[in-house]
# Entry
Amino acid sequence: MKYTFACADIGMNCGFKAEDSDKNKLLEKIRKHAKEAHGMSNIDNATLEKIQKAIKTV
Ligand SMILES: [Zn+2]
# Structure
């Protein structure tokens, strides 16, 4: 089983997708991407909640 996330799933106009078998590692990838690609050095709680809900398990 692994966790997947796509920026488009939270309404971003962005083709970024990430996956990892470890949810915390996936979140780290998302944080890094949010900072580098979207200039979000800090993810606020509302956005983090959206991200958590958008993460799918496959
Ligand atoms: Zn993105």
User: Anything to note?
Assistant: The pocket of zinc ion is lined by residues 7, 12, 14, 16, 33, 37-38 (CB under 6 Å). Strands lie at 3-6, 17-20, 56-57. DSSP finds two helices and three strands in the chain. Residues 3-57 form one domain.
